[in-house]
Design goal:
Length: 419
């Protein structure tokens, strides 16, 4: 028999064996694929909610939105979908959290705020602290979200689950509150690979009609940037330019004793008569008496009205809390990607900074227009050469608050213009 099985017989047996193996393999794929599986198509693995460097359970039970810098278009698979090794849909960062029976505005009926917790990795959201995270640790981001959901006044949560990046802060769950408006992203302290936090917000939005400053009439006049002298003449800057060395030399006591602060009339009647002088495509310098990130206003007039209504002292805190507001800087809500500033912060649409400057009638300018004036040049390098990400025109709208009869000059470029 063996002698009758020559080369042709050997080939035939090999072909038959190959066919049997292929049939068995395809049958196994059908069984492994479950009902409805297509032969020869690999079933996609479930989408991993874990991000590189994060603790194993950091995202357990959490719906994670890729950080903005991780989203790409086309081939990357992160344009609202997951790449080829994932099967779960990833929503866009602008996709609102599921609301179902949630109220459109306010916190009434918070128990009905349902839906999957949605968080974004490498993001630290801002807000007034409701519960301090240093003494409030949880197992994962989903648990942090649930703590916020069950806490009155909380609509923003921040969790640190990156053991390597967080160090002693790992497990901290910060519960916060900021004014949220539907359609605008929450204010963020930082975003990107260097940020170890995971953050999210609940759909507990504010009604613009409830903003105590948004509906207040305020007289708005446009600054004449060709006017070199103010009326009355500008007062001296007794405490120097705050940005000259990155604000490290500023002495709050000097500012409290300054002529500008002493002469400021804090009465409600005097403040109600103030005139808001504004300039588009400009960023004015000053010391923050109310933090701007997350202090969202829908219009420049609302930001100016907030400056006029600002009362120094508690509940405001910080080294300049006892100073009044006489300058403001607003990021227009039309700047959907935020406003550029050469600092470490993330400035979102609607952010309204309330500031104090010694000479609001002769304000120091950080950015203006195309940032191509001689005052923005440093060591021969133009502003946009030093800051390639700077926009064609400054994003911000800024202004100062002055008594009736006063007229501001076009100001002067401050040290920050040459950063």
């Amino acid at each position: 028999m063996a002698g009758r099985c020559g080369p042709r017989g050997t080939v035939a047996w090999l072909l038959l064996a190959t066919l049997v193996i292929e049939v068995l393999k395809r049958g196994g794929e059908r069984r492994g694929g479950g009902a409805g599986a297509v032969s020869g198509v690999r079933e996609l693995e479930p989408f991993s909610l874990h991000r590189q460097h994060h603790s194993v359970d950091a995202h357990e039970g959490l719906r994670v939105v890729p950080a903005r810098h991780e989203r790409r278009s086309g081939a990357s698979g992160l344009d609202g979908r997951v790449a080829s090794d994932a099967s779960e849909t990833v929503p866009s960062a602008d996709t609102p959290s599921p609301k179902e029976d949630a109220p459109r505005y306010g916190t009434e009926g918070d128990a009905k705020v349902k839906g999957t917790c949605t968080g974004e990795a490498h993001l630290e959201l801002a807000g007034d602290v409701v519960v301090w995270g240093a003494d409030h640790k949880v197992a994962n981001a989903a648990a942090c979200c649930e703590r916020c959901r069950s806490k009155d006044g909380c609509n923003v949560w921040v969790f640190c689950g990156d053991a390597e990046g967080c160090g002693a802060k790992v497990g901290q769950c910060w519960l916060k509150r900021q004014t949220l408006y539907e359609g605008l992203p929450p204010g963020a302290m930082s975003r990107g690979d260097g940020t170890p936090w995971i953050s999210g917000h609940l759909p507990r939005y504010s009604d613009p009609k409830d903003d105590p400053t948004g509906g207040v009439d305020v007289e708005m006049r446009k600054v004449d940037i060709a006017l070199v002298e103010s009326t009355p003449p500008a007062r001296p800057r007794e405490c120097g330019s705050p940005a000259v060395d990155g604000y490290s030399h500023v002495v709050p006591d000097c500012l409290v004793k300054s002529r500008t602060n002493v002469e400021f009339d804090r009465s409600e009647a005097a403040r109600s008569e103030q005139v808001a002088w504004y300039e588009e495509h400009a960023s004015y310098d000053g010391l923050a008496v109310a933090w701007g990130i997350g202090n969202i206003k829908l219009t420049a007039a609302a930001c100016a009205a907030a400056c006029r209504a600002h009362e120094p002292g508690p509940p405001h805190h910080g080294p300049f809390a006892d100073l009044p507001c006489n300058a403001w800087v607003w990021c227009p809500v039309t700047e959907t990607k935020g406003c550029f500033e050469p600092d470490a912060h993330t400035h979102g649409p609607g952010d309204c900074w309330l500031k104090f400057t010694e000479t609001p009638e002769n304000v120091e300018v950080n950015q203006r227009g195309a940032n191509d004036a001689p005052g923005t040049v440093k060591d021969g390098a133009p502003y946009r050469k030093r800051h390639p990400n700077a926009p064609r025109l400054a994003h911000w709208t800024s202004g100062v608050m002055l008594p009736p009869g006063w007229t501001p000059s076009n100001g002067t470029y401050g040290p920050r213009a040459t950063w």
